[in-house]
Structure to design on (313 residues):
């Protein structure tokens, strides 16, 4: 609407909070706006009046409650409330990523979550990785790999970050293995900048190549449980198509234990199975071969880079 277009960002932000509090909590007061934004009481009153005029019928003053409540025909105008968004806020509160006063949830319900096992990351390492990605630089680092007895020096060309649900990785070209790999950030140490990189991120076919994972209820489960899983995941024709990239498909496979033989776990423990495993493996192999061909074709020879060792500016 034209009125919305002319509103300043700060005003729209306050109107959005009013709307989300009304949608999820059913009511809002001037004190909520004062506490959240640090504004004056008169300014909070103006914001509520403005919202009332722009979203007619959404905001009604209830004398008994002494609060503004959501009208019976409430329709969001400044936000797009979603269940995922609300639950993400609850999760952030549970993890301590948000303080109660920082969330647009006014009065959260009682909730609990699994304890968060914190992984520690060196801030200077992260800063150098960010700088290397932005400036397209090489890094030289010690890396503790499970396949080696001791940390070994790696020369990496990082281009992106990845998160597998538990830990953060850096996506980088490794000059030692001559391919793109994921490196756990917490296992990197002694990170220094090592000159300009000539590696192009678009050579990393697995990072950008889309792929579909077809998930189905474990066929070993009773039919009633399979139907419940189908409803839980809103499956169509008994299957869920998860569209992602090849790199992320490895993460999802690990998260859901899809890389484990279903016969080795009780069906209640492994409720979902990967129905198109062979197709997925072919796509992964094809992407690896294409990336290897690109690297062979475009990799500068000889591959020598002078180490600068200079600090991040």
């Amino acid at each position: 609407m034209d009125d919305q277009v002319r509103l300043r960002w700060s005003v729209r932000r306050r109107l959005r909070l009013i709307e989300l509090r009304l949608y999820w909590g059913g009511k809002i007061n001037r004190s909520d706006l004062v506490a959240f934004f640090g504004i004056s009481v008169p300014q909070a009153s103006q914001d509520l009046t403005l919202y009332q005029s722009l979203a007619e019928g959404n905001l009604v003053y209830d004398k008994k409650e002494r609060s503004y409540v959501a009208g019976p025909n409430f329709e969001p105008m400044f936000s797009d409330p979603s269940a995922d968004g609300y639950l993400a806020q609850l999760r952030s509160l549970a993890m301590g990523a948000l303080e109660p006063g920082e969330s647009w949830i006014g009065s959260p319900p009682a909730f609990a979550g699994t304890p968060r096992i914190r992984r520690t990351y060196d801030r200077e390492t992260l800063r150098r990785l960010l700088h290397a990605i932005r400036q397209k630089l090489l890094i030289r680092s010690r890396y503790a790999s499970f396949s080696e007895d001791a940390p070994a020096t790696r020369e990496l060309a990082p281009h992106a970050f990845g998160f597998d649900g538990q830990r953060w990785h850096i996506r980088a070209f490794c000059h030692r293995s001559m391919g793109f790999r994921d490196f756990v950030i917490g296992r990197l140490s002694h990170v220094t900048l090592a000159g300009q990189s000539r590696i192009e991120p678009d050579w990393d076919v697995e990072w950008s190549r889309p792929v579909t994972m077809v998930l189905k209820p474990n066929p070993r489960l009773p039919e009633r449980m399979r139907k419940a899983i189908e409803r839980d995941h809103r499956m169509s024709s008994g299957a869920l198509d998860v569209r992602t990239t090849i790199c992320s498909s490895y993460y999802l496979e690990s998260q859901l234990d899809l890389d484990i033989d279903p016969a080795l776990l009780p069906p209640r423990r492994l409720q979902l199975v990967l129905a198109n495993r062979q197709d997925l493996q072919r796509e992964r192999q094809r992407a690896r071969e294409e990336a290897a061909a690109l690297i062979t074709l475009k990799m500068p020879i000889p591959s020598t880079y002078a180490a600068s060792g200079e600090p991040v500016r």
Notes: The first strand starts at residue 27 and ends at 28. Residues 261 and 274 are 10 Å apart (CA to CA).
